[in-house]
Specification:
The structure holds two protein chains of two kinds. By secondary structure, chain A is of the alpha/beta class. Chain A is built from four helices and seven strands. In chain A, the strands form two sheets. In chain A, strands 4-7-6-5 form a four-stranded mixed β-sheet. In chain A, strands 1-2-3 form a three-stranded mixed β-sheet. Chain B has ten helices and two strands; from the N terminus they run E-H-H-H-H-H-H-H-H-H-H-E. Chain B is globular. Chain B has one domain: Ferritin, CATH 1.20.1260. Helices cover 57% and strands 1% of the residues of chain B. Classes of the chains: A alpha/beta, B mainly alpha. Chains A and B meet through helix 3 and strand 3 of A and helix 3, helix 7 and helix 9 of B.
């Protein structure tokens, strides 16, 4: 029963980055069955991420459709989510959809006052890209543009 | 929203109830941000003191989030508007977590609402406390003023909050430690953003430099109030970081007298009254409201 429930939950996708499952995003921490209740543990990406409420609702709907009528979603804050939790499959899916995936974290972002390392353009692969905004369409993304092909693209921030 | 004590607006009710299409839940499901987190206060930790400390942390974030939100549709460029809204959203998320933590540690801090009111505890604390119960510093409640003043404030505030949260990762309260751990990652980006703007404006044109200097001067009287927050080492660390940015910007710390604000004691500025009226007015009209 736990294995089946886990399979169901693992296929739920992120509402803002639907090319990623919650598992690929790294926010799915646990699926367990306690008596006859499925207990799913999620962790937020950012403290104020409004997608978490939708993820909870989506998980409950998916479980209910698969016949699990008793389910609850719990939150865990620790260890804190990091972009390093996005799986290799998730990174590939982001790039395939024109979103530049996060690079491995180098540790704390010190006060550098310099433009950060430019991400590669997910369309043409050029390194000649420029940051348009440190904060993009969602809390977890920044906005960039490619000088080589002219495309504007999102980059999932290293956090 | 729906009012339990008035007509049931069926069309709206359906939006907030979980159904097959969970997209309708987006942004409307304001459930407990600490759902499933063990909120037992560890032995040796004073629950009342913990709650008071959490309110202070939350109120700083909530009030600055409100001020940052005021820039929406007024910022110099649309990307900046998005950035300020994103920073505000991070702070709002942190505020909700610590408000919920305060309520779980000491339910006595939560304002009483009519029996059966569905308003959750974090909303009760945000929307139903009077000014005197807010513990935020004056720095965050001052009106935005010039864009440069907003950036100067964000530089000082995020430098200080970053140092504070970094310290709180070792808190005796595991919930606060976990919130701090997340917050550190977010506030680093806020500081970076403000620092870059301060340098850009100071090293830009004569006008942008003048305005950056004036902006820093405008917020500086409220900076010393931060020093009174435990641990005061966070303030020293923040000032070191701010100095580093000011050096890169080629400007000096303003020489202005401290305002002597006592926001931590619930004494606030006149401007705070109108901020709270805007923040709380709608929620207070509907103490039985479900959003």
């Amino acid at each position: 029963m736990t294995v089946k429930a886990r399979d169901v939950v693992a296929q739920v996708v992120d509402p803002e980055l639907p090319m990623l499952t919650l598992e690929d995003l790294g926010v799915l921490r646990d699926v367990d069955v306690d008596d006859d209740t499925v207990v799913v543990t999620l962790t937020p990406t950012y403290s104020g991420c409004p997608a978490l409420a939708t993820m909870r609702a989506d998980v409950l709907v998916a479980l209910s459709r698969a016949g699990f009528d008793r389910a609850e979603v719990r939150t865990t804050l620790s260890p804190a989510w990091s972009s390093d939790w996005i799986s290799a499959r998730g990174r590939a899916a982001l790039a395939e959809h024109g979103i530049s995936p996060p690079r491995p974290n180098d540790g704390p972002v010190d006060l550098i006052l310099m433009p950060s390392r430019p991400p590669l353009c997910p369309q043409c692969g050029s390194v000649d890209t420029r940051e348009v905004s440190h904060f993009g369409t969602t809390a977890c993304r920044s906005l960039h543009t490619c000088r080589a092909c002219g495309e504007t693209f999102d980059h999932v921030k290293e956090i | 929203m729906t009012d339990h004590d008035s007509v049931d607006h069926g069309a709206y009710t359906s939006l907030v109830e979980a159904d097959d299409d969970a997209r309708w839940a987006f942004g409307t499901s304001f459930d407990d941000p600490l759902a499933g987190v063990d909120t037992t206060v560890p032995s040796g930790v004073d629950a009342t003191a913990l709650a008071t400390y959490c309110l202070m942390l939350a109120d700083d974030a909530l009030v600055l989030a409100q001020r940052l939100g005021e820039w929406t549709t007024h910022a110099p460029e649309i990307e900046e508007e998005v950035a300020l809204a994103n920073i505000g959203l991070d702070l709002l998320g942190q505020a909700r977590l610590v408000l919920a933590r305060a309520a779980a540690a000491d339910p006595g801090v939560v304002p009483a609402l009519p029996e059966r009111s569905p308003v959750p505890v974090d909303d009760r604390l945000a929307f139903f406390r009077d000014a005197a119960a807010f513990r935020n510093v004056h720095l965050v409640e001052q009106p935005n003023g010039d864009f440069a003043a907003t950036m100067a404030r964000l530089l000082v505030f995020s430098s200080w909050r970053l140092a504070l949260l970094d310290d709180l990762r070792g808190s005796a309260d595991p919930v606060l430690a976990a919130v701090a751990e997340k917050g550190v990652k977010e506030v680093r980006y806020h500081r970076e953003h403000a620092a870059r703007w301060c340098v850009t404006l100071a090293q830009g044109t004569d006008i942008s430099r003048e305005r950056m200097i004036a902006g820093l001067r405008a917020v500086w009287p409220d900076v010393p109030e931060l020093e009174g927050t435990d641990p005061s080492s966070a303030f020293d660390q923040a000032m070191d970081d701010v100095d580093q940015v000011l050096q890169a910007a080629g400007i000096e710390r303003p020489d202005v007298p401290a305002s002597g604000g006592r926001g931590r004691d619930g004494v606030h500025t006149e401007a705070f009254a109108s901020l709270l009226a805007e923040l709380q007015g709608l929620a207070r009209e509907h103490p039985m409201g479900r959003w």
